[in-house]
Model the fold of this input.
Amino acid sequence: MKKIAFIFIAIVFVTAGCSNELEKNDPYTDGVQGENFTFYSNKALFDQSLLQRSVGVNSEFSIVKVDAVKNYFFNGDDALVVTTSMNTKCEGDFKVIWDGSVMESYPSRINLLLLWSGTCDDLLSPTEEVLILNINELITDNDLSVNSLFSVINGSASHAAND
Done:
């Protein structure tokens, strides 16, 4: 009887472990939600998104400028203000992806990939959208978030050769 109970408990743990593993395989489950973007720290997703941009999987947009500021809305934390441009009447969402790597230079450097997925009705009039990335919240290592240079890579196909 003890042997049957042990086998039953082992099956329950294996089943729970497998279902947990399936959830971990979805790269979009562990994002940190910002006001108008979701942040992911996922190397596989970063690499896959870089490859996909050359075949036009992601929607087109431009990065107009990136400013590093002290953001007093976030208790004085450091922030990147990313101004983007796309066609008007667009609906979609931004994804910011970090592969978790840090370039070991001085100062250290972190690459962030910016993707936008959406559709647009009007193809003539551009509009801007601003993303405020609270770096101290997204990159939790305080030394990295304060002392690193950040590069924001455009994940759309039209900018694949311009990074």
